[in-house]
Design a protein that fits this description.
Layout: H1 42-49, E1 57-63, E2 73-80, E3 98-105, H2 113-124, E4 133-135, E5 140-143, E6 148-152, E7 155-162, H3 167-184
Antiparallel strand pairs: 1-2, 2-3, 3-7, 4-5, 5-6, 6-7
Helix pairs in contact: 1-3
Length: 185
């Protein structure tokens, strides 16, 4: 079942994962949007990482106006792990754990493979330390050392998990969450 584009728009800007400086337009087309926070349930994330999390914080770039991603609608959601020392109010400095999802809805004349290619290009230029490793998620996917990038139909997804555990735990959680998202697209 294909996910219908979301019509709820938040016109703020966020950092786009490795796509350079993304500019936003003030008024995105409402029929062409996606909501990264709606792609996962809070309890699914908590189960994948083994910790309680706070509600997602949505921050959209909206319609990107320049670069390879011009015309793409970009949405980001950040879920912070509850910091037990502060009763969940705010994470402690230097000990921040989180899950972040960036979802990008690509217009029909563009391909979400551009998102995955940006990680290959970043590795080739030494911007990221790890060469992307192919994964069997969606139409195509990679592990890029700090997260999972997936292309499915006209959507690209980036999932990064920051836990104070071993890197394998972060990768396992990011892959599990990416698979959940792809099931919903």
């Amino acid at each position: 079942m294909k996910r219908q584009p979301q019509s709820f728009i938040v016109p703020s800007c966020s950092l786009a994962l490795l796509l350079g400086a993304a500019a936003c337009s003030a008024e995105p087309r409402q029929e062409f949007a996606i909501n990264a926070c709606a792609l996962l349930e809070q309890d699914e994330i908590a189960a994948a990482i083994g910790d309680e999390i706070m509600p997602g914080e949505r921050s959209d770039s909206g319609l990107v106006t320049d670069g390879d991603a011009a015309g793409v609608y970009s949405s980001t959601c950040l879920w912070r792990v509850v910091d037990e020392t502060s009763s969940g109010a705010e994470p402690s400095p230097g000990n921040v754990e989180y899950v972040i999802v960036q979802a990008m809805l690509w217009p029909s004349e563009k391909t979400p493979e551009t998102f995955l290619q940006s990680f290959h290009d970043a590795a080739a230029h030494g911007v990221i330390a790890h060469a992307p490793v192919p994964l069997q998620i969606g139409d195509s996917a990679i592990w890029w050392g700090d997260g999972v990038a997936v292309a499915k139909d006209q959507t690209s997804i980036g999932v990064s998990v920051r836990l104070n555990d071993e890197p394998e735990d972060r990768r396992t959680a990011a892959e599990a969450l990416a698979k959940r998202i792809v099931q919903r697209l």
